[in-house]
Every structure is written in structure tokens, then in C-alpha cells.
What we know:
CATH architecture: 4-Layer Sandwich
Distance between the termini: 37 Å
Largest sheet: 7 strands, mixed
Helix content: 25-40%
CATH superfamily: Ribonuclease Z/Hydroxyacylglutathione hydrolase-like
Structural class: alpha/beta
Strand order of the largest sheet: 1-2-3-4-5-6-7
Bound molecules: zinc ion
Number of domains: 1
Mean pLDDT: 95
Strand content: 15-25%
CATH topology: Metallo-beta-lactamase, Chain A
Amino acid sequence: MERMADGVERLSRRVGPTINAYLVGDVLVDAARRQDARPFLRQLEGRDLSLVALTHAHPDHQGAADAICTARGVPLACHADDVDAMEGRRRLTSGTSLPARFVTRAWSGPPRTVDRVLREGDEVAGFTVLHAPGHSPGEIVLFRERDRVAICGDVVRNVSYLTGRARLAEPPGVFNTDSAQNRDAIRRLADLRPAVVLPGHGPAYEDPEGLARFADGLV
Length: 219
Ligand SMILES: [Zn+2]
Ligand SMILES: [Zn+2]
């Protein structure tokens, strides 16, 4: 695991695509793909764990949630508007496009009952829950005011899927429920002037003014 901010570590991945999960105190934020359950459980051995919280219920974030909750006997949390997806009553990705169907088949974990339903203003491991829909109806940003750290799920990514290099970008449109609404979420994130953005994909982004310019450039 790699330290990203005070009390925040990123779980390590040796192979596969860039998909981040963070241990925030004793809360696991996001659970990558179902294939990641075993390596994640190994990294969490000997560490306190009280909750698995999802930024949103997409296959590359909820995949190992059921396995980790079951193995460690901890509850699962996600935003109210993604509970139906996590519990198997709605498709895990919004579209029926080829890439959406592919990632769902290849990476998704089984449905699981959501034990703690998150809403705007709730607190998770010292972070405040901000509802930031658009990529997914129940997408959230976790923000900690005291050092301005934001864990932003897929509101923005910091990786180019073409080159693999760090680059701020919107999530691919085929995975969004509403790309215009997600741009509002990006602007809301930028308005927080986060010192550190920890995205679901790609390395940390530590330039609040750069993020503001990126948000201003969206139409
Ligand atoms: Zn996503
Ligand atoms: Zn993702």
C-alpha cells in the first residue's frame, strides 16, 4: 500500500488496468474488480476494517465488495441512488454499449445488500459525503476540509486510456448516465479547490488551479 494523504493509503496493484481503491483509516473506499478480492484481502490482513464504502456501484469499483465484506464481516455502504444497482435491481452500468457490457461481464461482483445508505452531508472516515451524480446516479465525492483531500471516484480520471499517462479527463461518455450532469459534478469538485484529488483511475492530482482551468474548459 502507498500513502497518499494523512490516514489515506492506496491499495497496490501489480497487474491489470489502473483502478484505485483507498484505505481511509479503517474504511475501504472502493473495491475494484472481483478479480482483486484476493490480493486486496491479503493487503488488508492485520489491518482494522469497519466498512467498505463505494464511490459508485460500477463493476470496477464494486467488484470485490461482496467478497471483502463477507471475508472480513463488515458492512457495505453506498449512496442511496446506487443501492438498486448494488443490490441487483438495476444494471451496474448505464449503457448497453459493447464496452459497458464487456466490463460488466468481465469485472462485476455479485449483488449485495447495502447496510448503510449514504446521503449528502454524511460522514465517512472523517470525510464528508458530497452527492455528485452524472457518471452514475449515486456517485459521491468524499471531501476532507482540513487538508482539502478529495476522493472523487470517476467524476474525473487522471489517466489517458490511449497512452496510459497521467492526464485529467472526463469519464468515457458510454459509461455515464448523464455526461452534462457529470460536468456539473466536475465543476463542483473544482470549486472545492482540493489540494489533493484521489481519482478512481490514475495517480493523485495536486493542482487545484489546473483542475479549475480544466473545469472551466468544459462545455
Ligand atoms: Zn465508473
Ligand atoms: Zn471506474
